Amino acid sequence: MPPVNHFSVARYWEQGDPISHAVAYVLMMMSLVSWFFILFKAFSTWRVRRAAPALDAFWSAPTLHDGIALLTLADREGVYAPLPAQGLAHLGGANTLAGAMSKDEQIIRVLRQEITRATHRIESGLTVLASIGATAPFVGLLGTVWGIYHALSTVSAAGIVQIDKIAGPVGEALIMTGFGLVVAIPAVLAYNGLNRLNRLTLAELDGFAHDLHSYFGR
């Protein structure tokens, strides 16, 4: 007769109470949200990095309009192309606050706005990944602590204190800590990797903006 497995997720789920189940559902939702942002941001960042070499093609174009067309075609995420496109219309109307600025100040304002917009776009979702990576282990630990408390309460109420009666429920409760780590580790790794690539993109945007400022300020 095969040995009975006293440590299993099914047994933990059967013995758990609504609080234990709620913690498990929270971890499941955190995992789903985490993987959604991991896949979505990985695809978006890949497209941004794929468009980065088009910056050289922009400066190799014969005219500004040709350069913008080439950059727009390559920049599917709209991170680099809006800078020169908005630079074409950097002069405000005569009856606006922007129009009262000098030409150099208007260029700086427009480029700064576009960099800010691009920064918000490429960094969106990273806060969610960082939050999940930081809190998921503690949510799992909460499930473990509550599972151990629930198991000890059940054993105490039964009036039978034996090591085999305690080891099983306590061991099963530790599963929640493992689940918390399983949720947190991919989120932390993805956050670090995406943050590293975003820093490269922001550095390129900053350099591109300086070059455009020199070009438009001629």
Can you walk me through this structure?
- The chain is an all-alpha fold.
- It has one domain.
- 79% of the residues lie in helices and 0% in strands.
- Helix 7 (126-158) runs antiparallel to helix 8.
- The model has no long low-confidence stretch (mean pLDDT 82).
Proportion in β-strands = under 5%
Q: Give me the Rg, rounded.
A: 27 Å
User: What integer is the average pLDDT?
Assistant: 82
Per DSSP E runs of 2 or more residues, the count of β-strands stands at: 0
Structural class: mainly alpha
**Helicity range:** over 70%
User: What does the largest sheet look like?
Assistant: none
Distance between the termini: 87 Å
How many helices in DSSP terms? 9
Instruction: Name the overall outline.
Output: rod-shaped
Query: What is the helix/strand order?
Result: HHHHHHHHH
Low-pLDDT ranges:
none
Looking at how many chains there are and whether they match, the oligomeric state comes to: single chain
Integer count of domains = 1
Question: Short summary of the structure?
Answer:
The protein is an all-alpha fold and 218 residues long. Helix content is 79%, strand content 0%. The chain has one domain.
Q: What structural keywords apply?
A:
218 residues, mainly alpha, 9 helices, ExbB/TolQ_transport, transport, Biopolymer transport protein ExbB, membrane, protein transport
Task: Provide the fold topology.
Layout: H1 9-15, H2 18-51, H3 54-60, H4 64-74, H5 82-87, H6 103-123, H7 126-158, H8 163-173, H9 175-216
Helix pairs in contact: 2-7, 2-9, 3-4, 6-9, 7-8, 7-9
